[in-house]
Amino acid sequence: MEERFAHYYVIHFTVSILLSEFIIDQFLPVLINHINMKENILNDKNNLQFQIVEGDDIAYLQYKYHNNSIALINIVVPKVFRRRGIASLLAAYAFDFAKLNSKPVLVYCPFAAHYVQNHPELSKQLDKEFHK
């Protein structure tokens, strides 16, 4: 009986190590990339866009001001940026910007609406009159 438990723990330990290595190999580079990318988000005040630029490619979240609020209009992510979480980074940045500037948020962008659904803590930043 004790031998079976020992065998179980060896298997469990081995699986845990393999899973940890997989997570480190697969997700740590993505996490590091996100940290670096967030530092590179620009606020293009002339075009009212939060942007990530790599070479000639620009991913951006278009915004507008409406009264005292900020409206998130649209997110555009070129193919070279896809599958890297860039749209989520831009949405997170927009909500951080709004909070820092005490601006309620109007969400027109479908992706930003989806982002709020996945991050319900952000719903307190939404413009209460617009989002009833």
From TrEMBL:
GO terms for molecular function: transferase activity. Keywords: Membrane, Transferase, Transmembrane, Transmembrane helix. Residues 42-127 form the N-acetyltransferase domain. Pfam families: Acetyltransf_CG (PF14542). Gene3D superfamilies: 3.40.630.30. The chain crosses the membrane at residues 6-28. This is N-acetyltransferase. It comes from Pedobacter psychrodurus.
